């Protein structure tokens, strides 16, 4: 004897075939799947801002000999600035006049640790020490376009020859400004 069970009764009693079809149905219906779906999309975006990070190494000239070699020859030295900017960022690297009174971006001054004497020096953009390095973007700064990697930029310095000064230790502090 065959008993017919309605879908409502089968659901109420949890009677399912292993195939997922209800007893007495014509087949193919799944209790939890109507066969319909809905879809949508959403956009993903981000912007990359121009950005730069800069660090600098100290510039040490060593010993200046005002009555020997430096009576007629500048005392030269160099140091490096490390600059990393986002790819394609155009930049200007400027160096200020320093913290010693009377210094300018063309002739900077180091102050004596134990007195009032100053020692004049200059900073340049090139190894032949002919292009002054100042702090006015588009005028006397070092310009470039970033590749997105760490770039090493050399600062060339010269303590001017022929200065008559006291025996002391001289120093100054330069601020590096990156405009982008």
Can you tell me the residue ranges where pLDDT is under 50 for at least 5 consecutive residues? 1-28
How many DSSP helices?
1
Q: Mean pLDDT across all residues, rounded?
A: 88
CATH architecture of the largest domain: Sandwich
Instruction: Give the helices and strands as they follow along the chain.
Output: HEEEEEEEEE
Briefly note the structural class of the backbone: mainly beta
Total strand segments: 9
Name its key features.
about 30% strand; 9 strands; about 180 residues; disordered N terminus; three-stranded antiparallel β-sheet; six-stranded antiparallel β-sheet
What does this structure look like?
The protein is mostly beta strands and about 180 residues long. The protein folds into 2 domains: about 1-35, no CATH class; about 50-180, Immunoglobulin-like, CATH 2.60.40.1090. About 5% of the residues lie in helices and about 30% in strands. The chain has one helix at about 5-15, and strands at about 50-55, 75-85, 90-95, 110, 120-125, 140-145, 150-160, 170, 175-180. The protein has a 6-stranded antiparallel beta sheet with strand order 1-2-7-5-4-8, with no helix packed on it. It has a 3-stranded antiparallel beta sheet with strand order 6-3-9, with no helix packed on it. The radius of gyration is 38 Å and the shape is elongated. It starts with 6 loop residues before the first helix and ends with a strand.
SSE map:
Elements: H1 7-13, E1 52-56, E2 75-85, E3 90-95, E4 108-112, E5 118-124, E6 142-145, E7 151-159, E8 170-171, E9 176-179
Antiparallel strand pairs: 1-2, 2-7, 3-6, 3-9, 4-5, 4-8, 5-7
